[in-house]
C-alpha cells in the first residue's frame, strides 16, 4: 500500500476503524484509489465522507501516540497538545480545579470547547463550590479511549452551541475480541507523587452482534509545596496573621505571643514585629493534590433484520482532595466579638469591645482546612440505525447523563460559637456544648472539647443532568459530473438541568456576629434549567474534477437552535477543499459559532458580601451617571454591600472564524501542513468587579441599573455584581505540522503560533484593549509558541519513543521579569514478548526542568494551569492479551 503523506495517520486510522466495523478486509489490502473512496465518520461533519477531503482542520491522535506519551489521564495527554491552553488539573491547592480536568482549545476558555464522546455530548462537571459549565475530563477513563480527534475550528453549524474554539471528540476502542489487562505505576525522582492505574478490557463478537467493555482504576498521590525548593516559600508577601496571633490591645499596643508561652498573663506577650513575625500560609499544602478514579463501561451492537441496535453505558466515580492552612481569622469588635475583663481566658484584665477588640490569628488547633470531592457520573446511550429510500441511512439515538457531586468541607471555624466562647461566661454556660476558649493562648491549651465547639464540617451537594434525543439521516441526493451530491439532515432536542445545594449552616445566618456564621464561603443555592430544539442540514458537493485528477470539493452546513432561555440562533459554515495535484491540497472554511449562556451564568444563586469599592459619585460630582446624588453624600468606608449572582438576561456569545490551510506532500512518506486561523467573539460574557461597575456607571452612564441607592441620602444600598455581554475577543495564529516516515523512524512535529489574543472590554475608566499574546497572568499563560515533537523508532519487538515539549517565554503582566522558555524531554522504551505480552518503561521530563518562577502567581510561584511541577517522573507498565 502506498502512503498518503502528512494525512497518513488520519486516513489509515479512520479507514482501519471503518473496515474493522464492516468486516470488509484488511487496510493493507486496499489500493490508494480504494482508500480515497472510503466514507467514514469524521469529527466536524454529520456526513460519512472521505477523510482526505475535509475542509476542516482536524488532527487525530491514535492509541499509539497516547500510550507513548506516558499520560495517565485524558487531561494529562490533552494538556501537552500545542493547540491547548491553560487548563484545570491536579496542580496546587491555590487553584480552582477541585479535582476537575479541562481542555481549553486556543485558550478561549473551557466552556468554549465542546467535548464529545463518540460524537455525542457529555454532561458538565460538578463537585466544586457549585457546578461547572464545561465537561470534567477527570471522570472519564483513559482506558476507554482508542483515539482523540481535535477539530480546531468553530463547529456550531454541526454540533450546536459551545463549539467556538473547536471540538474534542473522544472515540472509544470499539470492537474487541479477547481480553486485555493493562497496568502502570510511576513516581517522581524525589520518590513522591506516585501514580498507578490498571484496566481490564474484554469483548466478543458474532455474525450479528458484538459486545465489549471494561473496568479501570487510577490513583495519584500528593506532592507537598514544602518538598520542592521553587514552591516552599511564596514569592509574594508572607502573612502577618500568624499562629501566635497579632493582638491590638488598648494600652498595650500590638502584641504577639512569645515562643513557648502559655498566654495566661500579660508577660507572655511581646510587641509584634512586622518583619520577624510573618507566616507562610501555604506551608504543608499540596503542590499536586491526590485523586482517585474508577470506571466501568460497555458497548454493544445487535443486528436484527435490517436494523442495527446499539448502546453505550459508562459509570464512573472520582475522588479528590485539597488542603489549606488552618483558618486565618480576624476577630474584631466591629463584627460583634467581645471579651469581658472577667473572662477566665482574658490575660489583660480589661474589657475588649468595639475598636478595642482586634485579633488576627491562625487557628492551628482546628487543623488544616480540607476540601474533598466525590463525583458519581453515569451515561447511557441507546439507538438504532437503518436504511430507507435509495440507500439513505437514518439513525435515532437517545442519551441521558448525570453528574452528582458531593463537596465536603473540614476544619472551618464557627464564628458564632467563637463569639459565645469568648463572650460573657454566663451566656456560654447557658448554651449547651459551649466551652470557653483561650483566644490569646497557645495551641497546646486548646482541649478537644474546645476544638469540637469551634470546628465546622460542612457538605455541599450539586448535580447536573442532560437528556438528548437525535434523529439524523444522510445519503446521496443527486449525481453531479464530479460525483454524488450528499446531504445530511436532522433534529436534536436537549434538556439541561443543574442544582446546587450549599451547606445550610455555612451558608446560613449568623446569630451573634455580623457577616458569615463560619469561616466558610456563604452563598445561595442554584437551580436552573433550559431546553433546546435544533434542526440542521449539511451538504457535501464535488464541484469539479479534471481529467488529470485535480478536485474541488465544497461543504455547506446550517443549523437553527431555539433556547427557551433566550430565543433562537442560526449558524452556518461553508468550506472548500482543493487538490490541484497529488502533492498539494488547500482548504478554506468560514464558520459562525455561538455559546449559549450556561445555567451557572444565568441562574447562579446570589451571595451577599462586602466588596471593595470607592464611589465616584460621592459628593455629587457632575458626572454622567451621578445625576440625583446629593452633594452632601459622603461614602462611609471603602467597601459596598454587594450581591453576586447570575444574570438571567444574558444573551449568547457569537463568533466568526476563518481558516486557511495548505499541505504539501513532497514525498510519499513526508508532508508539511500549515493552518492559519482568525476568530472574533462578540457579546463576550464577562464578570465585572465592584469598582468597575461603579466607574462604568459614574463616567459612562452604563450599568447604573446595577446600583441601588438611598433616594434621600444617595448612599449605596446594594450593588448587583453579575456577568454581562460586554466584551469582544480577537484571536489569530498559525498551526504547523510536519510528519513522515523513514525506514524504522516516524516523526510528527506540531507547533502553534499565537499572533494575537486581544480582549476589548466596555469599561469606562480602564484600558479598552488587553493584549494578552506573549504574556502570563494569574493561572493563565499565552505563549507565542507551543510545540510538541514525537520521534519513534521500531525494530522487531523493540520500540523507542521520544517527545520534546516546548513552551515559549513570556512577559508577566507587569512586563518584568521575563518568564523563561521551557523544554521538556520524555522517553519511553517498549518491547513485545511474543503474541501476548508487552512491557514498557519511561521517563517524563528527563532533565528535571522546573516551572519558571512567576510573581503574578506569587502564592505558589508558577502558573499551575500551564506547567508541570512534579519534576522527573519514572514509570513502568505491562500489557497482557489473551
Largest sheet data: 22 strands, antiparallel, barrel
Structure class: mainly beta
Look at the structure and give the mean pLDDT: 91
- Percentage of β-strand residues: over 45%
Can you count the helices?
10
How many β-strand stretches? 43
Distance between the termini: 29 Å
Q: What is the C-alpha radius of gyration, as a whole number of Å?
A: 30 Å
Summarize the amount of helix as a percent range: under 10%
What report would you give on this structure?
It is a single chain. The chain is mainly beta. The chain contains 10 helices and 43 strands. It has a 22-stranded antiparallel beta barrel. It has a 5-stranded mixed β-sheet with strand order 1-4-5-2-3. Strand 20 and strand 21 form a beta hairpin. The longest helix has 15 residues, at 8-22.
List the SSEs and their pairings.
Layout: H1 8-22, H2 32-36, E1 58-62, H3 63-69, H4 74-79, E2 113-117, E3 120-121, E4 145-151, H5 156-159, E5 166-172, E6 178-188, E7 195-205, E8 209-220, E9 223-224, E10 246-249, E11 253-257, E12 269-271, E13 286-288, E14 291-304, E15 307-324, E16 328-332, E17 358-362, E18 369-388, E19 392-413, H6 415-422, H7 425-429, H8 448-454, E20 455-480, E21 483-501, E22 526-545, E23 551-563, E24 567-581, E25 584-595, H9 599-603, E26 607-612, E27 639-644, E28 653-667, E29 670-687, H10 690-700, E30 707-709, E31 716-721, E32 723-742, E33 745-761, E34 769-771, E35 775-777, E36 780-781, E37 785-795, E38 798-807, E39 810-812, E40 818-819, E41 822-833, E42 837-844, E43 873-881
Parallel strand pairs: 2-5, 27-31, 35-39
Antiparallel strand pairs: 1-4, 2-3, 4-5, 6-7, 6-43, 7-8, 8-14, 9-13, 10-11, 10-17, 11-12, 14-15, 15-18, 16-17, 18-19, 19-20, 20-21, 21-22, 22-23, 23-24, 24-25, 25-28, 26-27, 28-29, 29-32, 30-31, 32-33, 33-34, 33-37, 35-36, 37-38, 38-41, 39-40, 41-42, 42-43
Amino acid at each position: 500500500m502506498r502512503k498518503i503523506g502528512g494525512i497518513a495517520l488520519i486516513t489509515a486510522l479512520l479507514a482501519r476503524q471503518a473496515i474493522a466495523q464492516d468486516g470488509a478486509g484488511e487496510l493493507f489490502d486496499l489500493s490508494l484509489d480504494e482508500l480515497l473512496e472510503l466514507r467514514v465518520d469524521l469529527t466536524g461533519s454529520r456526513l460519512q465522507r472521505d477523510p482526505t477531503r475535509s475542509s476542516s482542520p482536524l488532527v487525530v491522535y491514535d492509541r499509539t501516540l497516547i500510550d507513548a506519551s506516558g499520560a495517565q489521564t485524558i487531561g494529562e495527554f490533552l494538556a501537552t497538545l500545542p493547540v491547548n491552553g491553560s487548563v484545570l488539573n491536579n496542580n496546587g491547592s491555590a487553584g480552582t480545579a477541585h479535582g476537575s480536568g479541562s481542555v481549553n482549545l486556543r485558550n478561549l476558555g473551557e466552556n468554549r470547547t465542546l467535548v464529545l464522546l463518540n460524537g455525542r455530548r457529555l454532561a458538565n462537571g460538578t463537585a466544586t463550590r457549585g457546578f461547572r459549565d464545561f465537561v470534567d475530563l477527570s471522570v472519564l477513563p483513559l482506558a476507554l479511549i482508542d483515539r482523540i480527534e481535535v477539530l480546531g475550528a468553530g463547529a456550531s453549524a454541526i454540533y450546536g452551541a459551545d463549539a467556538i474554539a473547536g471540538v474534542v471528540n473522544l472515540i472509544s476502542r470499539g470492537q474487541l475480541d479477547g481480553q486485555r489487562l493493562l497496568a502502570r505505576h510511576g513516581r517522581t525522582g524525589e520518590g513522591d507523587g506516585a501514580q498507578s492505574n490498571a484496566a481490564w478490557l474484554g469483548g466478543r463478537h458474532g455474525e450479528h452482534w458484538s459486545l465489549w467493555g471494561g473496568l479501570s482504576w487510577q490513583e495519584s498521590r500528593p506532592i507537598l509545596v514544602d518538598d520542592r525548593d521553587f514552591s516552599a516559600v511564596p514569592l509574594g508577601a508572607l502573612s502577618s496573621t500568624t499562629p501566635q496571633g497579632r493582638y491590638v490591645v488598648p494600652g498595650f499596643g500590638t502584641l504577639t505571643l512569645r515562643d513557648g508561652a502559655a498566654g495566661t498573663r500579660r508577660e507572655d506577650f511581646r510587641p509584634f514585629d512586622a518583619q520577624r513575625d510573618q507566616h507562610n500560609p501555604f506551608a504543608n499544602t499540596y503542590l499536586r493534590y491526590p485523586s482517585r478514579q474508577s470506571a466501568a463501561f460497555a458497548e454493544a451492537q445487535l443486528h436484527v433484520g435490517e436494523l442495527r441496535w446499539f448502546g453505550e453505558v459508562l459509570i464512573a466515580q472520582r475522588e479528590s482532595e485539597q488542603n489549606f492552612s488552618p483558618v486565618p481569622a480576624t476577630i474584631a469588635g466591629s463584627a460583634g466579638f467581645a471579651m469581658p475583663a472577667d473572662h477566665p481566658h482574658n490575660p489583660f484584665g480589661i474589657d475588649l469591645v468595639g475598636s478595642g477588640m482586634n485579633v488576627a490569628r491562625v487557628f492551628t488547633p482546628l487543623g488544616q482546612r480540607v476540601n474533598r470531592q466525590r463525583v458519581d457520573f453515569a451515561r447511557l446511550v441507546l439507538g438504532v440505525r437503518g436504511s430507507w429510500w435509495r440507500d439513505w441511512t437514518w439513525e435515532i439515538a437517545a442519551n441521558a447523563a448525570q453528574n452528582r457531586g458531593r463537596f465536603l468541607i473540614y476544619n472551618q471555624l464557627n464564628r458564632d460559637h467563637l463569639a459565645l466562647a469568648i463572650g460573657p461566661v454566663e451566656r456560654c454556660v447557658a448554651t449547651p456544648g459551649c466551652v470557653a476558649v483561650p483566644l490569646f493562648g497557645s495551641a497546646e491549651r486548646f482541649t478537644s472539647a474546645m476544638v469540637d465547639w469551634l470546628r465546622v464540617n460542612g457538605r455541599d451537594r450539586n448535580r447536573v443532568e442532560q437528556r438528548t434525543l437525535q434523529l439524523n439521516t444522510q445519503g446521496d441526493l443527486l449525481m453531479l459530473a464530479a460525483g454524488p451530491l450528499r446531504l445530511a439532515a436532522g433534529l436534536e432536542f436537549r434538556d439541561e438541568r443543574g442544582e446546587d445545594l450549599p451547606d445550610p449552616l455555612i451558608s446560613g445566618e449568623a446569630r451573634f456576629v455580623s457577616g458569615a456564621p463560619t469561616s466558610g464561603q456563604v452563598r445561595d443555592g442554584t437551580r436552573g434549567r433550559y431546553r433546546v430544539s435544533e434542526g440542521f442540514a449539511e451538504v457535501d458537493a464535488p464541484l469539479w474534477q479534471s481529467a488529470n485528477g485535480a478536485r474541488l470539493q465544497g461543504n455547506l452546513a446550517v443549523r437553527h437552535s431555539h433556547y427557551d432561555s433566550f430565543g433562537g440562533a442560526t449558524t452556518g459554515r461553508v468550506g472548500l477543499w482543493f487538490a490541484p495535484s497529488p502533492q498539494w491540497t488547500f482548504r478554506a472554511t468560514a464558520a459562525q459559532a455561538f455559546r449559549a449562556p450556561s445555567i451557572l451564568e444565568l441562574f447562579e444563586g446570589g451571595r451577599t458580601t462586602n466588596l471593595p469599592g470607592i464611589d465616584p459619585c460621592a459628593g455629587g460630582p457632575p458626572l454622567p451617571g451621578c445625576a440625583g446624588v446629593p452633594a452632601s453624600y459622603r461614602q462611609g468606608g471603602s467597601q459596598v454591600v454587594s450581591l453576586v449572582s447570575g444574570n438571567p438576561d444574558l444573551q449568547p456569545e457569537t463568533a466568526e472564524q476563518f481558516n486557511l490551510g495548505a499541505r504539501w506532500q513532497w514525498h510519499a512518506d513526508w508532508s508539511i501542513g500549515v493552518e492559519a486561523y482568525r476568530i472574533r467573539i462578540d457579546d463576550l460574557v464577562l464578570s465585572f468587579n465592584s469598582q468597575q461597575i461603579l466607574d462604568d456607571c459614574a463616567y459612562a452612564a452604563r450599568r447604573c441599573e446595577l446600583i441601588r441607592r438611598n433616594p434621600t441620602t444617595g448612599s449605596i444600598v446594594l450593588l448587583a455584581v453579575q456577568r454581562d455581554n460586554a466584551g469582544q475577543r480577537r484571536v489569530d495564529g498559525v498551526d504547523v505540522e510536519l510528519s513522515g516516515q523513514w525506514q524504522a523512524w516516524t516523526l510528527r512535529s506540531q507547533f502553534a503560533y499565537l499572533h494575537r489574543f486581544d480582549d476589548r472590554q466596555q469599561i469606562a475608566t480602564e484600558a479598552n484593549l488587553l493584549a494578552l499574546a506573549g504574556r502570563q497572568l494569574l493561572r493563565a499563560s499565552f505563549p507565542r509558541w507551543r510545540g510538541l515533537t514525537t520521534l519513534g523508532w521500531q525494530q522487531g519487538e523493540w520500540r523507542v519513543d521520544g517527545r520534546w515539549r516546548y513552551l515559549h517565554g513570556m512577559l508577566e503582566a507587569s512586563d518584568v521579569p521575563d518568564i523563561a522558555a521551557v523544554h521538556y524531554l520524555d522517553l519511553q522504551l517498549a518491547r513485545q514478548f511474543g503474541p501476548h505480552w508487552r512491557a514498557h518503561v519511561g521517563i517524563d521530563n528527563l532533565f528535571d526542568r522546573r516551572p519558571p518562577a512567576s510573581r503574578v502567581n506569587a502564592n505558589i510561584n508558577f502558573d499551575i494551569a500551564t506547567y508541570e511541577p512534579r519534576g522527573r517522573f519514572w514509570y513502568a507498565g505491562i500489557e497482557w492479551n489473551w
